[in-house]
Amino acid sequence: MAEQEHLHPGDDEQLITLIDDKGNEELYQVLFTFDSEDYDKSYVLLYPQSASDDEEVEIQAFSFTPDENGDASQGDLYPIEDDDEWAMVEEVLNTFLADDDAE
Fold first, then answer.
1. Of 6, 17, 75, 85, which has the fewest CB atoms closer than 10 Å, so is most exposed?
2. Rounded distance between C-alpha atoms, residue 95 and residue 35, angstroms
3. How far apart are CA 49 and CA 78, in angstroms?
4. Are the beta carbons of 23 and 37 closer than 8 angstroms?
5. Could you tell me the pTM of the whole model?
6. Strands 41-48 and 25-36: what pairing?
7. How many domains does the chain have?
8. Interatomic CA distance for residues 63 and 65, integer angstroms
9. Residue 2: its pLDDT value, please?
């Protein structure tokens, strides 16, 4: 399981453009990044920049290769294809959201 001290909340400057299968581009903001020692990977969770605060959004998750500053917006994104890996990412997200609600 990823350790919580490895969570790095996104800031306003970390934006990533995703391109769908039809070539449509959408700008996403980094929610947070974290590292998993179990999988020896870094992960980034994104949400659409256009989403309003009261809107329910679909969060996108990828593993990524960070740049020299650990920035996700400059590295390569990779799909998460393993079910156990997805379960770990969802657990980290749920913990992050529960901690955010508690504040």
1. 17
2. 15
3. 20
4. no
5. 0.80
6. antiparallel
7. 1
8. 7
9. 42
Share of the chain above pLDDT 70, in %: 83
Best CA proximity match to 33, nearest among 68, 76, 66: 66
H-state helical runs in the chain: 83-102
Tokens (6 digits) for 26: 């959408």
Tokens of 36: 């998993």
For residue 94, the enclosing domain spans: 4-102
What number of CA atoms fall less than 13 Å from residue 40's CA on the CB side?
A: 0
Angstrom distances, CA of residue 71 to CA of 42, 77, 82: 10, 12, 24
Q: What is the largest CA-CA distance in the chain?
A: 39
Look up residue 59 and give its DSSP letter.
P
Report the phi/psi class of residue 95: left, alpha or beta, with left for phi > 0 and alpha for psi in -120 to 50: alpha
Q: 34 CB contacts (<8 Å, ≥6 apart)?
A: 2, 6, 7, 8, 42, 43, 92
Tokens representing 78 are 């990779």
Which amino acid, one-letter code, is at 23? G
Q: Are 33 and 10 in contact (CB under 8 A)?
A: yes
